[in-house]
């Protein structure tokens, strides 16, 4: 890997890779390494690392993903503002009729900027100031579509059940959208902004919403989180209800996109619905911590811990589209202790949000993940022709038998539902 690529896609001698760097190690690193891939690259011979990467990340068009060297301004910004910067290319087979449809897509993960005890206006402003150089790095790299993390403008305070955190909520066209509209116009970039929405026109209701800002700075639309967790410290149902916007796909200047917000990643029908509506890229802005989702993490989202079987990756395969998975980073300590009524002692934080944002492709390939504890920008060039090529190759849409599931779901929703169970007749005979 060329030196410039290493400076950008993570290097072994990065100060954050120092296994003795106990500060990093205590902040969600893996034995002082930023990610499993960094650990493996540092520990294995180049040939072994290549083989392990092939197994963990898959092949795209018969080979590992090529790293992309981003322009110097982006690399300089990543160094001066200490955020992880990685970039890779997903290719498709060359077609005889269609030209390639290359789109450059970015994901930003970040920790909060000020302590949760500081004034809310200061916290929000500090996050804007923290994100601006990372967004500028994306824009100066030619990113066409950029997605931020869930509820990016605030601490993920939905563990506290305290309602003053709702002061961070804004109308869809409020302060954070205006901040991003200027950047969208400046860089001709679509921006997905997952935020806490206050629906002023409808009783000032609160929603967990993703606002889609077009590359000319206009608001294209919004999507509200469909599935709300009631698990562990995720007391989000105290703040907002299940969304009422269905499964919209937003036709932007660069492709058709959708947003599956965090907990919705556990629901395969949620992923499927965006696919049936024609999504080519589905973003999964999340906020999740090791204590809760670690046991599921190797199954559900790209894991730096054990396996690279990812529900996001599965969704990309099953629905023949690209997925951008984001998770925030850091540990957010709140002023007042809280409990989730699960017998555990009261505490003041969720645990560590472990970042690890990454992209998955419909051909089962995926990028390595971003840092487990540093802010980061992941960039990928995607040839959207790959979506239809995989549909044609595997035929998942054609063989899906939706009518079977329509019938089952229609019966399941009725109060007299009878599960389709065929019992061993001998069970009853022996019991008699
Ligand atoms: N933000 C959110 O929905 N988190 C739920 C916990 C999880 O899905 O890991």
UniProtKB/TrEMBL annotation:
Keywords: Hydrolase. Signal peptide: none annotated. Residues 103-384 form the CN hydrolase domain. Pfam families: CN_hydrolase. It is an enzyme of class 3 (hydrolase). InterPro entries: Aliph_Amidase/BUP, C-N_Hydrolase, C-N_Hydrolase_sf. Residues 1-23 are annotated as: Disordered. One of its GO terms (molecular function) is beta-ureidopropionase activity. GO terms for biological process: beta-alanine biosynthetic process via 3-ureidopropionate. Its EC number is 3.5.1.6. Pathway: Amino-acid biosynthesis; beta-alanine biosynthesis. It comes from the Eukaryota. It catalyses: 3-(carbamoylamino)-2-methylpropanoate + H2O + 2 H(+) = (R)-3-amino-2-methylpropanoate + NH4(+) + CO2; 3-(carbamoylamino)propanoate + H2O + 2 H(+) = beta-alanine + NH4(+) + CO2. Residues 1-18 have a biased composition (Basic and acidic residues). Belongs to the carbon-nitrogen hydrolase superfamily. BUP family. This is Beta-ureidopropionase. It comes from Carnegiea gigantea.
């Amino acid at each position: 890997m060329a030196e410039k690529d290493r400076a950008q896609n993570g290097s072994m001698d990065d100060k954050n890779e120092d296994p003795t760097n106990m500060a990093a190690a205590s902040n969600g690193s893996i034995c002082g390494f930023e990610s499993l891939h960094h650990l493996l690259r540092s520990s294995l011979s180049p040939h072994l690392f290549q083989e392990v990467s092939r197994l963990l990340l898959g092949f795209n068009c018969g080979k590992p993903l090529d790293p992309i060297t981003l322009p110097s301004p982006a690399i300089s910004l990543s160094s001066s503002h200490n955020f992880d910067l990685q970039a890779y290319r997903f290719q498709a087979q060359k077609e005889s009729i269609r030209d390639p449809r290359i789109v450059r897509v970015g994901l930003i993960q970040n920790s909060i900027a000020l302590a949760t005890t500081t004034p809310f206006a200061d916290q929000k402003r500090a996050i804007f100031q923290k994100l601006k150089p990372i967004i500028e790095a994306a824009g100066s790299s030619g990113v066409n579509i950029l997605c931020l993390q869930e509820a990016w403008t605030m601490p993920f305070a939905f563990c506290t059940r305290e309602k003053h955190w709702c002061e961070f909520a804004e109308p869809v066209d409020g302060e954070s959208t205006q901040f991003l509209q200027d950047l969208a116009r400046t860089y001709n970039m679509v921006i997905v902004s997952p935020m806490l929405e206050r629906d002023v026109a409808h009783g000032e209701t609160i929603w967990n919403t993703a606002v889609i800002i077009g590359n000319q700075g206009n608001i294209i639309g919004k999507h509200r989180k469909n599935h709300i967790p009631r698990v562990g410290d995720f007391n989000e149902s105290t703040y907002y209800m299940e969304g009422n916007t269905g499964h919209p796909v937003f036709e932007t200047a660069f492709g058709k996109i959708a947003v599956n917000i965090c907990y919705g990643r556990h629901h395969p029908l949620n992923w499927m619905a965006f696919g049936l509506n024609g999504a080519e890229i589905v973003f999964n802005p999340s906020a999740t911590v090791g204590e809760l989702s670690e046991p599921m993490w190797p199954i559900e989202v790209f894991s730096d811990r054990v396996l690279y079987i990812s529900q996001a990756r599965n969704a990309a395969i099953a629905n023949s589209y690209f997925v951008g998975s984001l998770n925030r980073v850091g540990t957010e300590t709140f002023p007042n202790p809280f409990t989730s009524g699960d017998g555990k002692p009261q505490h003041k934080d969720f645990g560590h949000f472990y970042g690890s944002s990454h992209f998955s492709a419909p051909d089962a390939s995926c990028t390595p993940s971003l840092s487990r504890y540093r802010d980061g920008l992941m960039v990928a060039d995607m040839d959207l022709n790959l979506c239809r090529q995989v549909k044609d190759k595997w035929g998942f849409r054609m063989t899906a038998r939706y009518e079977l599931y329509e019938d089952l779901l229609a019966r399941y929703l009725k109060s007299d539902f009878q599960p389709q169970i065929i019992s061993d007749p001998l069970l009853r005979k022996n019991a008699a």
